[in-house]
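Example 4.3 (complexes with small molecules)
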Amino acid sequence: MGIELFYFNIKLVSFMSLRFCVFILLSGWSASELVLAHALSYQSMLDKNLKKYNIPTTPGLLDGKSPIIVDKTTAIQLGKALFWDSNVGSNGVACASCHFHAGADSRTTNQLNPGTLHLGDTSSKTFNLLGNKGGVNYELKATDFPFFKFDDPDYRSTLSFMTDDVVGSAGVYQQIFTAIDVNRLEEDVCSPLNDPIHHIGNAETRQTTTRNTPTVINAIFNHRNFWDGRANNEFNGVSHFGPRDVAAKIWVAKNQNSKPVSQKLNLVNASLASQAVGPPTDMIEMSCGGRTFKDIAKKLLAQKPLASQEVHPTDSVLATLRDSSGLGLTSTYEALIKKAFNPIYWSGKGAVQDSGKNYAQIEANFSFFFGLAIQMYESTLVSNQSKLDLALAEMEAADNDTMIFPPSFTPQEQKGLENFSNAHCDFCHDSATFTAASNREIYTPNVYKKVGSAYVDRIGFVPSNSNTEVDATLIDNGFFNTSVTPDEFDIGLGGTDPWGNPLSYSMQYVNSIGLNPKKFVDRFMVSPCAFVQPFTLDYKKSELKTIPATSAGCATSKSDAFVPKAQIVKQESSGWDEGRMSTLTVGAFKIPTLRNVELTGPYMHNGSMKSLEEVVDFYNRGGNVQNRRHAATLVFELNFTQEDKDALVAFLKTLTDERVRWEKAPFDHPALKVPNGHTQSSSGGLMEDNYLFIPAVGKEGLTSEPLKPFQNYLK
Ligand code: HEC
Ligand code: HEC
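Answer. The structure with heme C bound is encoded below.
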């Protein structure tokens, strides 16, 4: 197949210093004829050592005149307890119930979702795994994968089977909340809702999430979280949505005797806190419907954390608080919050009125404490001692800039690294985190602190029906549509928030300059002067207006920036997809990190591939489908030999940190009973659970069996 792509990536070099790839592909050239002056250089290799980077800063959290967190150690303890505590969910579900295996989920039973995000498909509520298999409580088999089956997996040949089913994670039963039961903390008082999908006969089974569970390890580096980026970079103290949720507020007391007053919170680089306040009240993941954070506060505040769970005597975070009985901690959630957080958030006098009810300040602010404590714990889950990191440290110590490959890599790993670069994997899986979705601060800290953005770019390519005209599209840096499924299966970044605002930055940008002039709902800057494909290349001068360089964040450029006039944008924008103001957002997903990817299967937003071999086949054949603007993604046929493919997989495995594989500190944890499919019996309208017992692990890690790749758990 010919590759119709014309791509200049030169400007990115100055902006993203790590990247140096200039490639020009002309119509009719095949992948093997690519002319590449590509990325492998001494410095760009050394910069892939994650140990060289600090986590992004969250101003005001631990610093400043009145920091939010006053005792970091306690905040991390609180976060770890909350993350692993099965009392947080309504039916014995902890965050860790879906994030227990290298930060992800390796369960194989009752994990299938029938593809409920599939747009406009009335049959999307049915399971349709190959040969009419699947359904609730189904145990996945190795032969069920991949979910798009080609006669020859190396080419986009005859597609013999595809499904919109998704490997998600089992959460809670579909129920409505009535009350907290302080005597049975794992189970809230709830009543079943006759779930139309998740049931066996008259009894409900646990619901499953609509997307695959990504790892929480290294998620602290992501600028936004979730596959569609909806966990906002700014934390508002209450919900996922940062500044979009205008009603969100926290309660602050000037001093111990004053009455708490409501205040807005806009804490930057706190996407993990934004993320963490979602699941506890989510009706699929952790909660009976209608349960609020204030209910959860009433349930947990007076309780002993991890009350029924074993804590290892050498737990790297919790050992000092471990109850001598071996179960749980000696403290209460209330005591830990008061120790960790600034008193202005919990010590105010008098009740706080919210939705007509009275709460103590510490109850009203519970989501705020919860989100930030979890973020503090997740900030410690950084894996920077993989074979790659260690090899790069050695290479740097040798101080020989003629080296390109780490000397301690095997020839196969070196070949794999070369293939990784030649196949443009590092165009998207870039920098030390192996994802362009990382906070720009970690690329070139000072530049991004000053300029602030580069979260939106505009790139160009020659569409397949033309070899002259350059077609350009705006992108949200860090998100791409790589044609894993047809767009309508899941529109990903093309979605909106509950108020109808686009999740995507580039769609907000188009809105702001043309369609519906208004401020962005998120706070970010776009620098049109730094675009790879600036507007000046596709618009006539008369169609453009200038804006001052400074207002466009073009601090490094002397010239003014050019953007299309509003009426021009209006004239030609019939939708997001076409014309010169198109955006590549529908069907785009956050580029996942590749660190520890050996252990975090199944892969992709839909969990449709069981092994790295299947992922590499996917890239080798140039995607499963060809979505709109497929060419822009650089996912095209690679013509790799078996040897090339094996080498690429071998390289990906150098990204595993042995501390993750062996659950050594900081990846050690309390014991957890994870619901894992159902038995044949039911009670109270709910199918009973089988369990997977995850033992408590101390800082030395597992002693017998390490964590294994997902496919090893499949029959
Ligand atoms: C029922 C399973 C389940 C539970 C329980 C759960 N998660 Fe997740 N988690 C998921 C799924 C599925 C996604 C991806 C959802 C999406 O992107 O739309 C996810 C995404 C995330 C992410 C984003 C990672 C990334 O790279 O985008 C983080 C961080 C995370 N979860 C942390 C938590 C925390 C903290 C809790 C508890 C408060 C929690 N999860 C509870 C299933 C679960
Ligand atoms: C154009 C950007 C882009 C390029 C180029 C690219 N990827 Fe990806 N990669 C993504 C995105 C986006 C996803 C998630 C897609 C989805 O879930 O639909 C992904 C997913 C993956 C995953 C699954 C990770 C997980 O946790 O589910 C692996 C492994 C992977 N890519 C490896 C590679 C390799 C190897 C190459 C080169 C052959 C490559 N990628 C090239 C953007 C890219």
